[in-house]
Amino acid sequence: MAVEESIYALIPPVAMVTQRPAMYKSKFPTGVAPTASTFGMHGTSKPGVKNVGGAMVEGEGPHPFKKAHATFGKPDNRPSPNDILRATKPTLADPKPFVRPKLAPSKPLNPSKEEIAIAAARVAAAESAPRKNFVQANAIENILSAPKRESGPVDWRKKPDFGKVPTYLKNIQKEIGEEHEYIRAMHEAQAAAAPPGMRLMGEDEKMELVISLKTKWDAVNSEYQKSSTLSLASLDTIGKVKRKEGYEAQLAQIEKDIEKLSKPVIWVHDDGSY
């Protein structure tokens, strides 16, 4: 495609020459830290920051603010492999010449002529010795042995422990006697510790009272069931209501009395009143 001519291209454009400014130089010294700088303060005499006042000259002190090699370290800071950190320097013993230990032979040595002769003599003696016929020996032993006789019936009356109480029964009787003695002693201790004018109710007396109370409960409950006070519709008078409440109170009281008699220890008056 041909480029069309233009009147604007007749006059060449003027080249613009850019004037480069002068190199910038800071008015602050390069060797002084900025204001309130915290860089490189480790190990110096300033607590955490330096040049707080914005001084143009590095301050003086017992420790320099700018550490040597504080940026990239020493030129060659690789540790030497010989410099090993240790508590004490080890002392090595004087070297000794190496002596190779004598190793045992890996295979047994061949037997000598004397050993071969002795082994051959033992084999010949074993072969020439008479061999035992075990089948014939067992047959002769069985023929000559006396036949086994079965034992007769055992007479148990002639046993040494016939008619005696076994040992395990004696032990059981002894344990039962000890338990009875312990219970009796416990009852005596409880009776001795009774309050004044009171005595401990016995088991027979307690069971008799429980049976009497249960009989009474059955009788009251039977009367309660037979009465016409069970349904709410029949409670049309004050007398029926009071009769129903009386039956229920009697049954509840009998149940409380039976529950009291179920306690292990019950104290009663000496005169027999409860």
Number of strands: 2
Structural class: mainly alpha
Poorly predicted runs are none
- The largest sheet has its strands arranged as 1-2
Name the helicity range.
25-40%
In short:
The protein has five helices and two strands, in the order αααβααβ. By secondary structure, it is an all-alpha fold.
List the helices and strands and how they pair.
Layout: H1 113-128, H2 134-144, H3 167-192, E1 198-200, H4 203-226, H5 238-261, E2 267-269
Antiparallel strand pairs: 1-2
Give an account of the 3D structure.
The protein has 274 residues and is mainly alpha-helical. It has five helices and two strands; from the N terminus they run αααβααβ. The chain has a two-stranded antiparallel sheet. Helix 4 runs antiparallel to helix 5 (238-261). The longest helix has 26 residues, at 167-192. It starts with 112 loop residues before the first helix and ends in a 5-residue tail after the last strand. Residues 173-269 form the Enkurin domain. Keywords: Cell projection, Cytoplasm, Cytoskeleton. It comes from Diacronema lutheri (Unicellular marine alga).
